[in-house]
Specification:
By secondary structure, the chain is mainly α. It has one domain. It is 85% helix and 0% strand. The protein is elongated, with a radius of gyration of 18 Å.
């Protein structure tokens, strides 16, 4: 069975989105201080390194929470990648919905967090992720839902 062109284009867009999600997740999981330091300073007006020196246990707790959050984001992205690679091109409706739910919940969760933290760089990354999910899912919508 040949994959429709719209699903192939969608697959590439969603693959790019998944790579961005994995890079974001890996960054926060391996080096959480990169994400925490910027957001911390934007949110509190204090330097994270100063806070780390003054209150190391609480500062490290923030790193643990960031690592857990981005680890969960990586799990969501990896689950979506598995569906993308194994089922999405075949066109089952459940795969479309799975990617929609993973994409919107994953990117939406971090978007709201970064809006709260007032981090424009990560807000932009999150908006790009959501836009890629929506474009990637709107393009093949007829192929997934056009036939009864």
């Amino acid at each position: 069975m040949e994959t429709k062109k719209s699903i192939q284009v969608s697959f590439v867009i969603l693959w790019i989105m998944m790579i961005i999600a994995l890079i974001y997740g890996l960054t926060g999981f391996i080096k959480p201080e990169l994400l925490v330091a910027r957001s911390f300073q934007l949110y509190t007006g204090q330097s994270y390194s100063t806070y780390l020196a003054e209150s190391p246990k609480l500062a490290n707790y923030l790193l643990i929470l960031e690592r857990m959050a981005t680890g969960l984001g990586m799990v969501v992205a990896l689950g979506a990648i598995i569906v993308l690679l194994t089922s999405f091109k075949k066109g089952p409706k459940w795969a479309w919905f799975y990617i929609l739910i993973c994409g919107i919940l994953g990117w939406g969760n971090t978007l709201f967090a970064n809006i709260t933290l007032n981090n424009p760089l990560l807000i932009t990354v999150n908006i790009i992720g959501i836009v890629l999910v929506l474009i990637g899912l709107i393009i093949p919508v007829k192929d997934f839902f056009g036939k009864s």
